[in-house]
Design brief:
It is a single chain. The protein is mainly β and 455 residues long. The chain contains three helices and 17 strands. The radius of gyration is 23 Å and the shape is globular.
Length: 455
């Protein structure tokens, strides 16, 4: 690689470094009627929690080049339930997500390092009723459902890359912070999960949503010659939005495509997928009750105003919840989350041939197992600060080695005359008239083999 020089050489080196780093991402971002769910003075029941962490780490050496990586993805959820009447209870849901990636490359006359840390902290207060209704093949069935909720999200991303080639160094960094506060009400209550899941495979529910919210987004970047650019600056945006209209929910029992592991408590659980479509498209419904509008969420896909300065991206691509029987009906006591990286492609033309290795980005699933509340709180500190995991962690399988080999080979031989790289975060500013960005992935897609969504 020492033969690569000048502007073209730096573009090639930059592409290799970012591609190598991001291919290692684990599967491992009101009105009066929409008032926030009040915090009851009644005595809460014992809280419960679940969470998990997946990791991918190691190194590979091909010839004079070595690539080393360490990547983790994890999340935890803490629920506290408070009975407020014979048919209504309040849920407080605290959800924390953390992503950490470090990667280093050493080769002839070249070193590169990349780091990415993303986090999101969500808090929701939800008034839940066990007198809601869903429809199973057109037949009404009793269910738990949402009356109203309030949600606060705080999320951030910090990433940086540094490359030294010979005596010349290049670097870039990006820091992003976003907040969202929403209040929502459903009339009638939006049915979520049937009280009795025996023999049930799919169901649906409808309601009318009234939601209001406010969001802020700020970002700062520096670029010292990376991708042949030199710039620095900061920007911010924000706004308010109120929406109303019909909401449609579709639920699936997903045991076959998202099988429930046998956890240590040996409870019987059912794997469920929930999809919500509302007046602005698909809504995220993370861990049952985190109802995030389309387009917001640094890990929800879509387009963001800071994409032009982004070095890469990561997103949650799917989620299942595992429910067991609780005192008021189905209770979410575990889950699974899938995580994907960037779309990337790399080519190494030599003579008239064009051998290429490409990948849509590694992907896999992390299981969220039941855990104690103190363990979840300890894990939260790790997820937000980037330390090691307290939750049960397991390796991520993603076909990673073949992709790494392809990158390392191209990085180690002096045959590269062109490298194409395209970020999952499309490099343009997008907005859908409210919360930033557009989000076809606002609701995690179903797993492979699941029934198609009902639009």
């Amino acid at each position: 690689m020492s033969a690569i020089g000048g502007t073209k050489g730096w573009i090639v080196l930059s592409a290799v470094a970012v591609l190598a780093a991001m291919l290692l991402v684990p599967t491992v971002a009101g009105t009066a009627s929409a008032s926030p769910a009040p915090q009851s003075t009644a005595t809460p029941s014992n809280p419960w929690a679940y969470g998990g962490e997946g990791y991918s780490n190691g190194s590979i050496t091909i010839g004079p080049s070595t690539l080393t990586w360490n990547a983790t993805f994890g999340w935890t959820v803490i629920f506290t339930e408070t009975n407020t009447s014979a048919t209504v209870y309040q849920l407080e849901e605290q959800r924390t997500v953390g992503v950490g990636i470090t990667s280093t490359y050493t080769g002839p006359n070249t070193t590169a390092s990349y780091s990415y840390h993303g986090q999101e902290i969500d808090t929701a207060f939800v008034n839940v009723t066990d007198a809601a209704t869903v429809y199973e093949h057109g037949v009404a069935a009793p269910a738990i459902g949402i009356l109203n909720d309030s949600l606060a999200i705080a999320a951030g991303i910090a990433e940086s890359i540094a490359i030294t080639h010979g005596t010349v160094s290049r670097s870039a960094s990006l820091d992003v912070n976003g907040t969202l506060h929403t209040m929502a009400a459903f009339a009638p209550a939006l049915g979520l999960i049937p009280l009795n899941l025996t023999g049930v495979s799919t169901w649906n529910a409808t309601s009318n949503l009234t939601q209001s919210g406010a969001w802020t987004l700020s970002w700062a970047w520096t670029n010292d010659g990376f991708f042949n650019n030199t710039s620095s600056g900061s920007n911010s945006t924000g706004g308010n939005e109120s929406v109303s209209g019909p909401v449609h929910l579709t639920g699936y029992v997903a045991d076959q495509s998202w099988p429930v592991p046998v956890f240590q408590d040996h409870k019987n659980r059912t794997s469920i997928l929930l999809v919500i479509e509302g007046p602005r498209g698909n809504y995220a419904l993370y861990d049952g009750f985190i109802l995030s509008p389309p387009g917001f969420g640094l890990f929800g896909g879509g387009v963001h105003p800071f994409d032009g300065q982004a070095l890469g991206s990561a997103s949650i691509s799917g989620q299942a919840i595992y429910v067991s029987q609780g005192p008021r009906g189905p209770q979410i006591t575990a889950g699974a989350t899938s995580f994907t990286g960037v779309d990337s492609s790399i080519g190494s033309p030599l003579g008239g041939s064009n051998p290429a290795a490409s990948s849509s980005g590694p992907s896999g699933t992390v299981q969220g197992a039941p855990m104690t509340v103190p363990a979840a709180q300890a894990e939260n500190a790790c997820l937000t600060s980037g330390c090691g995991g307290a939750a049960a962690a397991g390796p991520l399988s993603s076909g990673l080695v073949l992709v790494i080999v392809a990158v390392a080979v191209v990085a180690s031989v002096g045959l590269v005359s062109a490298i194409g790289w395209r970020s999952y975060a499309r490099r343009r500013t997008g907005s859908n008239g409210g919360f930033p960005g557009t989000g076809p992935n606002g609701v995690p897609p179903t797993a492979p083999g699941q029934p198609p969504r009902q639009n």
